[in-house]
Amino acid sequence: MKTLRTIAQALIILAGILLVWQGIVWLFNLKPYIFPAPLDVLKAIEARYPELLASLSLSAAAAAAGLFTALIAGVGIALIFAQSPWVRKMFYPYTILLQTVPIIAVAPLIIMWIGPGLFAVTLITFIICLAPIIANTTLGLISIDRNLVDLFLMHNASRGQILFKLRMPHALPSIFTGIRISSGIAVIGALTGELFAGSSRVGQGGIGYAIQYASAQTETPYLFALVLAASALGFAFFFIVMGLEWYFLHEWHESARSTDVE
Amino acid sequence: MTTETIIVPAISIASATKSYGTGTTILKDISLNIAKKEFVSIIGPSGCGKSTLLKLVAGLSPITSGTIAVDGMTPANAREIVSFIFQDATLLPWRTVRQNIVLGLELEGMARDRRTEKVNEVLHLVGLTHVADSYPRQLSGGMKMRVSIARALATRPQVLLLDEPFAALDEMTRDRINEDLLRLRADQGWTSLFVTHSVAEAVFLSTRILVLAPHPGRVAHDIAIDLPFPRNEETRSTPAYEQTVIEISRALRSVSASSVNAGGAAHP
User: Fold this and answer.
1) Greatest CA separation found in chain A?
2) Cβ A262–B134 below 8 Å, yes or no?
3) Domain count, chain A
4) Which of A57, A220, B14, B83 has a 20 to 30 A CA-CA distance from B171?
């Protein structure tokens, strides 16, 4: 009931904003290519939605593929980092480097080396998503109560048993923190990649490419539609990750309290 | 001499010394034998190496010199007959009570159906059947500790090592768990080595109390507790019990006082 009211309130506010927006454009007689009214944006969406949907799905595919591969690689690298403090000391600075190098400066290089296309965009997304997953997973794998490790040792547990029955489940909440951070920047990564990757060719591209094309053609209403689509994609990623997190953690992790007996 | 007359002690410690690389000696020249089915408590001021001694017996920390044998085996080889109960309940939060208790059997590779049977048995024994499918975060501190005990008993240990397991519990819960522990011991007959800060708890549970003196840790007093079994709530109000508590407290105080003096001399 409460969520329903929250949603209703949000919708009323949204309707208000749209009305004011439409009113301002109408009042000052702004040209659609300078500042389009909501109705202009809606018309642009209606006229070009197959194209918009194609761009959206391309970007979604690149962002999802980049995020997923970063998850696999990030957890793998974190597993190596978790083996010894020595390994961490050696390689951790490079993880920070990965995080601090501006992707916008590296993207053109990658496009130059492997050529434009979905693969290049995915690779750029992968790079930007990797560091948060490595950092959070490593933390989860190593920050384990010494007594728990001793408990496993008392039962003559093998290295593999300690990894799969103790370290991995213990790291799961941290892995999700990493994915949550990376899911937000995955969409940014994909769009950044597309800005560079799609520019050399006229035709179909992801949202990043379409934004550049629309801006060059001053198709401002469609540009607005693309911005909306990109935001929607970011939202979708965030909610999917939140849903998965809830599914895997709500029974036992402190973050979910609604089912407490006490 | 027949084989029957050779009694292998449950735990045999000979000149055990533990020191760290920095030169600090935690335990110095500890020698003692613990017979099967004894319940031995170790008390002493902080820094006397009580927990360290327990870790040595568990083989979780390497000994610097001397030997420790558990049922004639090295600590590392004796783990199959030893269970360790830690200061905190050390439960895995992602596992239910049942799944936590089964952990030891699972790690030792017992078949699934036998595992389930054993766990049901232990659940019944410690009175946790009604929360078998709850997660640890849904349980009180006392319940969590019961799960921890159940997990330790599931593997049918012959030796139980307990490292201040009830320190965080309120007094009433602690008393009740103490009584349950004695009931389980009478039933299963393990040998216990129990580290605690509480003199009353040590007297209630033990057949023997070791008072350790600090800097470096060594056995200052070795006192047999002759209170008859079974012990229960009433035991705590008997004159004999109260007299023993006073006696042990005095022994502990003498050890603590000398350590304060020693400390004062070392750091004027």
Assistant:
1) 78
2) no
3) 2
4) B83
pTM for the complete prediction?
0.84
Q: What's the domain range around A17? A: 1-30
The strand pairing partners of B223, in sequence order, are B209
Q: Do B107 and A155 touch (CB under 8 A)?
A: yes
CB atoms closer than 10 angstroms to residue A251: 15
> Per residue in A208-243, is it b (16+ CB within 10 Å) or e — as a string?
bbbbbbbeeeebbbbbbbbeebbeebbebbeeebee
ipTM: 0.89
For residue A168, the domain's CATH number is: 1.10.3720.10
Residue A256 lies in a domain: no
A149-195 pLDDT tens trace: 999 999 999 999 999 999 999 999 999 999 999 998 999 999 999 98
Instruction: Flag whether residue B133 sits within 8 Å of chain A, measured between CB atoms.
Output: no
Q: What residues are paired with B84 via a beta bridge?
A: B161
**Which tokens is A111 given?**
């496009």
Total structural domains within chain B: 1
- A33-91 pLDDT, tens digit per residue, is 888 999 999 999 999 999 999 999 999 999 999 999 999 999 999 999 988 889 888 88
